[in-house]
Amino acid sequence: MTAATQATTSTAAAAPPAVTIRDLTIVYRTPAGELPAVSGVDLDLPPGTITGLVGESGSGKSTLALSLLGAVQRPGRIAAGSIHVDGLGNLVELSAKSLQEARGGEIGYVFQAAQNSLNPLKTVGKQLLDLGRSHGVRDRTALVRSAKELLAGMGLDAARVLDSYQHELSGGMRQRVGIMFALVLNAHVLVLDEPTTALDMISQANVLKIVRAVHTERGLTTLLVTHDIGVVAEVAERIAVMYGGVVVEQGETADVLRAPKHPYARALINAIPRVSGDLSAARPLPGRPPTLGTIPTRGCVFRERCAVYAERQLPACVAEQPPLAPVADGSGRLVACHAVAVEDQQATGETA
Ligand SMILES: Nc1ncnc2c1ncn2[C@@H]1O[C@H](COP(=O)(O)OP(=O)(O)OP(=O)(O)O)[C@@H](O)[C@H]1O
């Protein structure tokens, strides 16, 4: 057992919680009325797993992540659906006070650009005490000990870091401080939004290694939001692909990266040489992702950029958004695509 786990033996022994999101719709008020940034999303974070949530800019990843913290802010609101976290219940129904306690307490988060989110006027140690105070922590000594053990477990000189101001730390060190803040109150659900963006390659690799190690040692259930599929390939056992506010494919990372089924997931993965493995085979995805005002309100959200629709023109693609449904191969993969459903039906019919 490492120093990081010793501090939290009693809570670390608890089973990691499952997170179950069902039919979640989150809207933002705009001059054109309330528009959905997340539409009827189903997403499972199995206990003890890291799930990578990927998609182009504007696909709704951060909005979905914020909902897990009960932190969707005006002009946004959760319009429908549920977010169940073991031990906490349905976050959508919790009071503001319970949510505030859960945030940072049960559910830790590291925001996009966490490298710059520290208060420049206070040392890390002072900010730690502020965090403890805001969550009613009485035992300050234990809090500092736990922070030191986390920092040391991530390879940092803990005493020095607690005495430092933001500008005295490198980007990779600040990111590790962000992870310490997310976990020091013994959270068991960890939400990381673009944890390695803006870091150089070496710091990126180090932070990912640390994320993986801390996740395993502390028995966490982790959601990692990123636009970088390479990051997911490195640390996440599961992947969910978002497009236009909808999860279009969900499954084991290795399976999905090897043989993506949704035309968007395929295009996204084929666009990345690092993942597809062959520079000459990498194909950029033509067109642009939709914005709130341009997400199709009828039919499949991906239809306008879909190579399969361009070729086959299935009427169902125009009529309705396909549900996220299990594919027939029994792998547990979920895909929201009419063409995949038709192919599955044909294949099942042939073998029947
Ligand atoms: N406060 C807001 N008010 C209005 N629209 C918003 C607000 N925040 C986000 N949006 C819109 O909601 C949609 C989803 O945004 P979100 O930030 O969740 O996507 P994302 O996939 O995380 O993108 P990125 O990778 O760029 O952060 C986008 O069209 C965005 O413009």
Question: Briefly, what is this?
Answer:
This protein has 352 residues and is an alpha/beta fold.
SSE order and pairing:
Blueprint lengths: L2 H4 L2 H4 L6 E12 L2 E13 L4 E5 L6 H8 L7 E10 L3 E2 L5 H10 L1 E4 L13 H11 L5 H14 L4 H5 L8 H13 L5 E5 L7 H18 L2 E5 L3 H7 L2 E6 L2 E7 H6 L4 H8 L2 H4 L30 H6 L2 H5 L5 E2 L7 E2 L2 H14 L1
Parallel strand pairs: 3-8, 3-9, 6-7, 7-8
Antiparallel strand pairs: 1-2, 1-4, 4-5, 9-10, 10-12, 11-12
Bound molecules: adenosine-5'-triphosphate (ATP).
The site of adenosine-5'-triphosphate (ATP) has 16 residues, from β1 and α3.
Number of helices: 16
The ligands found in this model are:
adenosine-5'-triphosphate
CATH superfamily heading = P-loop containing nucleotide triphosphate hydrolases
- The CATH architecture can be given as 3-Layer(aba) Sandwich
User: Strand order, biggest sheet?
Assistant: 6-7-8-3-9-10-12-11
Beta-strand content bin: 15-25%
Level-1 CATH class name: Alpha Beta
CATH topology: Rossmann fold
Separation, N- and C-terminal Cα atoms: 52 Å
Low-confidence stretches: 1-13
Class per helix and strand makeup: alpha/beta
Integer count of domains = 1
Topology order in helix (H) and strand (E) letters? HHEEEHEEHEHHHHEHEHEEHHHHHEEH
Number of strands: 12
* Rg (C-alpha, Å): 21 Å
Major beta sheet summary: 8 strands, mixed
Return the average pLDDT rounded to an integer. Answer: 88
The helicity comes to 25-40%
Shape: globular
